[in-house]
Amino acid sequence: MVPVVAAIAAGNGVVIKPSELAPATSALIARLVPEYLDSEVIRVVEGGTAVTQDLMAQGFDHALFTGGTEIGRKIMAAAAPTLTPVTLELGGKSPVVVLADADLDVAARRIAWIKMLNSGQTCIAPDYVLADRTIAAELTDKIVATIAAFRAEEKDPSLRIVNERQFDRLVSLISATSGTVVTGGGSDRAVLRIEPTVIVNPAGDDPVMSDEIFGPILPIITVDSPDAAVAFVNARPKPLALYVFTASQRVARDLVDRMPSGGAVVNHVAVHCLVPQLPFGGVGASGMGAYHGKWGFEALSHRRAVLAKTTTLDVKLMYPPYTDRAIRLMRRVM
Hints:
Layout: H1 2-9, E1 14-16, H2 23-36, E2 42-44, H3 49-56, E3 63-66, H4 69-79, E4 86-89, E5 95-98, H5 104-116, E6 128-132, H6 136-150, E7 159-160, H7 164-176, E8 180-183, E9 187-188, E10 193-194, E11 197-200, E12 217-223, H8 226-234, E13 241-245, H9 249-258, E14 263-266, E15 287-288, H10 293-299, H11 324-333
Parallel strand pairs: 1-2, 3-4, 5-6, 5-13, 6-12, 11-12, 13-14
Antiparallel strand pairs: 4-15, 7-10, 8-11, 9-10
Helix pairs in contact: 1-10, 5-6
């Protein structure tokens, strides 16, 4: 609801179209919004693709979409006939680069925590890890141990996936991988649950490395140097977020500068979205535009130039016909 707050603050009316892929959440929003908020200003419209297309055809002052890159392209295309400006918060494969001097215990906890948050189904979840060769095995062991510790008191260590289509897609990524599954890998379609899974060194063209994972699967890839990590990331579409773990602020800044992304965090994962003073958004295939805090207010309002002039002084020399004397005087003034 963060974009709704920004839109209302900027003086707009709002139409909320929840995702049809999360019907329980959609129904809850449709029930609670009119109960607690002004229905003359905020409306909720439920439905599938056809409803979204009908809404976009109406020609709004602005459309903000959160979702995958492919659907983002369709939203942008649907906005084109009415020249509706769009903010697209998409996704992508947000990498974590862990250098040899990083605090591995902290890195393991923070990576595992955010990766398992909402079963890995968040747009800024760490998608894969690039670990320096000298610490890759140790980091992998610590992440595996951390996952086990985080799930130790749960009756079922596996995590719930949003629907059957996403479940089948994630299971196929695990079964088709060329890497080594070092923990997890199990699943139960009857209850749509998948174990947190770590895959070591899948090939660069492995299915799990091709598209955004959006689930509790974490590839860990060994790299020989920071330069190799930069080359790996930059060979792919620009991600929504970039995470760098290192003890050196100078090295961190250098790496952030060399790898374009929507946002970046040093020595943590995803927490930049909690800071309202920072813009949040993607770049390239991970989106366009930014919001949160004042950035949302500015994105969802129009900065209009207005100039008021007095009528007290109105020099007639400014108007035609222009005599030679008038031209000489104006040249002196200008």
